[in-house]
Write a structure and sequence with these properties.
- The structure is a single chain.
- Helix 10 packs parallel to helix 13.
- The protein is elongated, with a radius of gyration of 23 Å.
- It has two domains: 3-208, Jelly Rolls (Sandwich); 224-331, Orthogonal Bundle (Arc Repressor Mutant, subunit A), CATH 1.10.10.60.
- A seven-stranded antiparallel sheet has the order 1-3-4-11-6-9-12. It has a five-stranded antiparallel sheet with strand order 2-5-10-7-8, covered by helices on one side.
- It has helices at 3-7, 23-33, 136-147, 168-181, 193-208, 215-218, 227-238, 246-253, 257-267, 272-290, 297-303, 309-320, 324-331; strands spanning 16-20, 37-45, 50-57, 60-67, 70-77, 81-88, 93-97, 100-104, 109-113, 119-123, 128-135, 159-161.
- The longest helix is centred in the C-terminal third of the chain and has 19 residues, at 272-290.
- It is α+β, with helices and mostly antiparallel strands and 335 residues long.
Length: 335
């Protein structure tokens, strides 16, 4: 048995697909298994041993890997898959993508490789990581479902920072999936649950990382906004569960109601009231699609700060092309 098995306790241990101490055999096996990358050049510094576990969850591929040697790998992107590498343990890695080099350090940051993108990866001995792989098409479909707008190819920021409020929900759900995978009866073995978990992971991933259509979530103008417009938008975002008056916004921002109206019209294309309504609809859709506690539309509307259910259903259908009940039914597999 290769030394790596004795040295590492990797996630997804029940889904072992490689345990190899030959560099050549490991490269050949990896190449035959992975449709995401082709290894153009690989060299090992020291005795080599490699372990790989893999789980398919709907359109998502989840892997955990460890190697005893330091590696230098030139990766040729050969499909439309996006790859997120999340380091485990103390050993680190570096990825050079284009002209920039990104570090992968446990507890700090991971690295995103875009579809069809070449890179060079250098790992230190004992490096362990998790790989999250998903196709561009699956991401586009998830974003369309989440926003109600058709999307073209997505471009992501390469650095994935762990210590941020945006990435925490994604990492928590990913951790839940890995914990379930260690049990005798993981929840995703139940009919339809793998697809639902995968959809929730994709939604949380899209909300966690900066990408080309991020403005659909932040609703921020491409132009530089005045401070009072940005402050008002942030205040409305954090007080969606109640009605905020123009007088209150004026006290918070220190400007007149007229200045706020003109600023929102210029930089957001709508009034503060319309902005708040749109954000409540977006919050309601996110709850309907991802919240395990979202059992009925009335409760979701309350959590999103929406008071009039009839008006909510009409506005929701106009924005997303389906009723809130239909979205909720798809979430629980009843559509």
């Amino acid at each position: 048995m290769p030394a790596v098995s004795a040295r590492f306790r990797l996630p997804l241990s029940r889904y072992r697909c490689m345990d190899e101490d030959s560099l050549d055999r490991a490269v050949a096996m990896y190449g035959s298994m992975s449709g995401a990358v082709r290894l153009r050049e690989i060299s090992a510094d020291g005795p080599f041993s490699y372990q790989l576990n893999h789980l398919s969850l709907g359109p998502i591929g989840l892997s955990s890997a460890a190697n005893t040697a330091g590696l230098r790998v030139k990766v040729e992107g050969s499909s439309d898959n996006l790859l997120l590498s999340i380091p485990l343990g103390p050993a680190s890695a570096e990825s050079t993508i284009g002209q920039r080099t990104w570090s992968a350090e446990s507890g700090k940051s991971g690295v995103l490789s875009a579809p069809w993108q070449d890179s060079e990866v250098r790992t230190r001995p004992g490096y362990q990581n998790i790989l999250f792989a998903v196709s561009q098409q699956a991401l586009q479909e998830a974003l369309t479902t989440l926003t109600g707008a058709q999307q073209r190819a997505l471009q992501f920021q390469s650095r994935f920072a762990f210590a941020s409020a945006q990435t925490a929900p994604f990492m928590e759900l990913l951790g839940y999936v890995f914990r379930e995978a260690e049990g005798e009866r993981p929840v995703f073995d139940a009919p339809g649950m793998a697809e639902r978990l995968a959809e929730a992971l994709l939604f949380r991933f899209l909300l966690s990382q900066a990408h080309s259509p991020s403005a659909l979530f932040s609703a921020r103008s491409q132009h530089v906004e005045p401070r009072h417009v940005r402050r008002a938008a942030e205040y409305l975002d954090t007080h969606l569960q109640r009605t905020v008056t123009m007088a209150e916004l004026g006290r918070v921002t220190g400007v007149t109601a007229r200045a706020l109206q003109l600023g929102f019209k210029k930089y957001r294309g709508c009034s503060p009231l319309t902005f708040a309504r749109a954000r409540r609809l977006e919050r309601a859709r996110l709850l309907l699609l991802t919240s395990d506690s979202a059992k009925n539309v009335t409760e979701v509307a309350r959590l999103a700060g929406i008071e009039h259910l009839g008006r909510f259903s009409l506005s929701y259908r106009q924005r997303f092309g389906e009723s809130p009940k239909h979205t909720l039914a798809r979430r629980w597999g009843r559509a």
